[in-house]
Structure formats: structure tokens, C-alpha cells
Amino acid sequence: MPPRIAPEDPQWWLDDVETAYAWLRAEDPVHRWRDGHWVVATYDEIREISRDPARFSSAKGVLVNDPKRVPDPPVAMAASILELDPPEHPRYRKIVSRAFTPRAVGRLEPRIRELSRQVFDAAPADEDLDFVDHIAAPLPLLVIAELLGMQGVSQAQFRAWSDETIKAADAGHADMEILGEFVHFLAEAIAEHRARPRDDILQLIVDAEVDGERLSDGELIVFCMSLLVAGNETTRNLVSGGTVALAEHPDQRTWFAESPAERAAHAVEEMLRWVTPIKAFARTATGDTELAGRAIAAGDYVVLLYASGNRDASAFGPTADRFDITRPPDPAHLAFGFGGHLCLGAGLARLEAKIVFEELLTRFPGYEVTGEPVRLQSTLINGVERLPTVLTVGAAEAERA
Ligand code: HEM
Question: What does the pLDDT look like over 269-319, one tens digit per residue?
Fold first, then answer.
């Protein structure tokens, strides 16, 4: 019997979704799960859609539950960069792209290392702690807040705003009062940057012109929100998911810990494939079209199951369903999407994760996950809310030292 396919239900993604992915890939890779709504489970088809914005547009929403978000909540005061198609999309992307070039990201390395050390220094060793609260959440928050130029707000406050924005991805779940505070804070930060220019990403956005015009306040707020949230929950869950995966594969963890600096970049690439922190984004068919032999009608909503594409044996071979940090980097995984909207912060996320895992495996190669990870209920983020952990050097490692 075919498994239940219900991507609009956050719980569906937590119940044996891997079985559903495997069935879809084998039996019906481009599957109509209800009228006008499709899921796409295979690597090649996800790439085909992502590279063709003329045929598959982002303008009608990219979140699984966007079709349900009527009327729009206050966060949708303007289209985000994620929801733009050419020719507008590259014009907006260009505003901030210079802050994310390999060279610009490379310059951040010393500061990210410093912040990472502070985060680890603040975490108690050899006692029960929540790895998400102490390690995985703080670093990406500190980095993106600093890059954007957000001052005078606590890490806890930022996290609350960011978490609530993610909840807004699923209709009816978010606290609009908290989101209102976030919008108010951003409006003030924008006003301060207009009054006293600074050297940060928010200034790039405030000063930018598209077709000779400055961005409206609504556009500025949505742009900031997208960057803050995109640069935050995603990297957090790459780190927490990667930490779980390594704990579940002790031989790979030992191999990684033998030479963390040398092996981290490679390991992080496999963690990205394995965890796939963004489970899915969507597109809308702009006209009647065909995909893998299926007739898709104009206006149909097509959900790209990145996490399934990242387990597709036709791309990753017979070991696609195994975690292997020695896997070759080619073919590239889909964790950052593909095509024109390819994640702008990919280099930054890779660098942050690389630094965190170098630090973790150098200081605490024997860390223990001491309880079941509490999974986040979301149609967007493959997340861990709580991860009971003890940061410890580990008996074998302590003896060797
Ligand atoms: C592990 C971490 C991350 C993952 C898995 C991830 C994933 C993604 C994915 C799948 C997309 C494609 C959207 C689409 O095709 O519709 C995307 C776009 C984007 N990401 Fe990331 N992201 C991560 C980290 C970051 C960071 C650190 C930033 C920094 C600010 C960032 C900023 C963005 C932006 C601005 C876009 C939109 C690009 C565009 O529409 O042109 N992301 N990300």
C-alpha cells in the first residue's frame, strides 16, 4: 500500500518520512498528492525545476504551506528575495552578494573562531546540558547578528524572534505579537543606519538602489528578516544534526577526531547531505508542462523534497542511504538548493560548521548524546529542538593525552 503523503502536515515529516521518500523515488517520483499539488522526490527532477524559473516560478511562495497563508500574515509586507523571479531576482541578490563572496567570507574566519571559542568556553564540561542551547544555536545567531549590524539585543531575544518566524512558515502557529516586536526592532535598526551609516550588511541594503529607487521600508524589513532567519536556524540544525550523526557513527567520529582541521570541510559536506536542514521549498508552474512523464498544469504547486533528492541512489549510488564522511564531494548535494536561488550563505554556513566541528572534536572528542533528540515539528526545517549531551574528552582520548 502506498504510504501517506501529506507534506502540509508538520507531523508527517517526523513520522517515518524516509519510507515515504523511498516509495516516491521508486514508484512515483513526481507525485500528485492532492489536486494541483505535487511532490518531487528525485535528484534530477529537483534540479530540472530549480534551474528553470521561467517554467517554475518562486513568486507564488516557496514554503510548503504558503498556499494556505491567506490572508498573508504581517511578515509578508513585501516579497522576500526567495520569492522573486528574473529579472527582479538577480537585481536584489546583487545588493548583498558581495558580502558573501568566498573572499568576504574568508575574512570572517578569525572572528568566527573567536566567537566559537567563547561559545565552547561558556558551556560546562562533564555535566548534562542541552547542546542546542549551549552550542548549536548561539554561534549562528552571534555571527549573523554581527554581520547584519544588529546591536543592543540579547541572543535570547534574537532566538525567540527567529524561532517564531520559522513557526510562521506553518499557517496558524506563530505568535503575531512576537513577530510584531521583531518588525519594530528591525524598523528602528533601519532608521539608525539611515541616520548614522555603518559598515555592515544592513547598510548595504539601506543604501541600495534597484532601478534607481531605494527599497521601501517593507522591503528592507523583509530582506533583513530573510537574512537573519536564513542564516540562523539552518546552520543551527546542520550543527545539531551533524553532532547526532557523528555520535551514531562512532568509527567515523574517531577518524574525524584524529585530524579535525584537515577533515572538517569534507565531513561538513556529508552532514549537509545527510541532515538537509531545509527539507523542502516549492515552485509554481507558470504554464502547462511535463515533468518525468507527468502532466503538470499551469498554477500547480510543486514541492521539492531536497531531503529525498539527497538520498537518491541514481545520484549518490548504492550507499546513498548511508552516512559516510569520506564520500566524494561530487555529485553536489541539494542541501543549498540549486540554480539561481542557490543559497547565498552557503560559504558562511560551511565555514561556521567547519569551525564548530573542529572545536568540538578537538576539545570533546568523546562527547556523549545522552538522550533522545527532541525533533522540531516543521514543514521547513529539519531540526532538533533539544539535544541532551555531555561534553567530555572521553575515556580513551583522555588516556591517550
Ligand atoms: C546549513 C545552512 C543553510 C542551508 C541548509 C540553507 C539552505 C538554503 C536553500 C535550500 C536555499 C534555496 C532557496 C530556493 O531555492 O528557493 C537557500 C537560499 C538562501 N539562503 Fe541559505 N541555507 C543555509 C545557510 C544560510 C546562511 C548562513 C545564510 C546567510 C545569511 C543564508 C542565506 C540565504 C539566502 C539570502 C537565500 C536566498 C537566495 C536567493 O533567493 O537568491 N543561508 N538557502
Answer: 999 999 999 999 999 999 999 999 999 999 999 999 999 999 999 999 999
Name the residue ranges covered by the structural domains of the chain.
10-64+76-400
Whether pLDDT at 201 is above 50: yes
Looking at the CA of residue 50, tell me the nearest atom of ligand 1.
15
For the CA of 226, the closest atom of ligand 1 is: 35
CATH class entry, domain 10-64+76-400: mainly alpha
Asked if residue 349 has its Cβ within 6 Å of ligand 1, the reply is yes
Ligand 1 touching residue 63 (CB < 6 A):
no
Number of helices and strands in the chain (H, E) = 18, 14
109-152: per-residue pLDDT in tens?
Answer: 999 999 999 999 999 999 999 999 999 999 999 999 999 988 78
Which parts of 173-278 are beta strand (E)?
209-210, 213-214
pLDDT per residue as tens digits for the range 92-118: 999 999 899 999 999 999 999 999 999
Cell numbers that stand for 6 in this block: 501529506
Which of 115, 343, 357 to mutate to test ligand 1, by most ligand atoms within 8 A of the CB atom? 343
Residue 74 pLDDT exceeds 70: no
Per-residue CA distances from 142 to 135, 163, 363, 377 (Å):
11, 15, 21, 24
Which of 239, 279, 336, 380 for mutating ligand 1's site (highest number of atoms within 8 Å of CB)?
336
249: Cβ contacts below 8 Å, ≥ 6 apart = 323
pTM to 2 decimals? 0.95
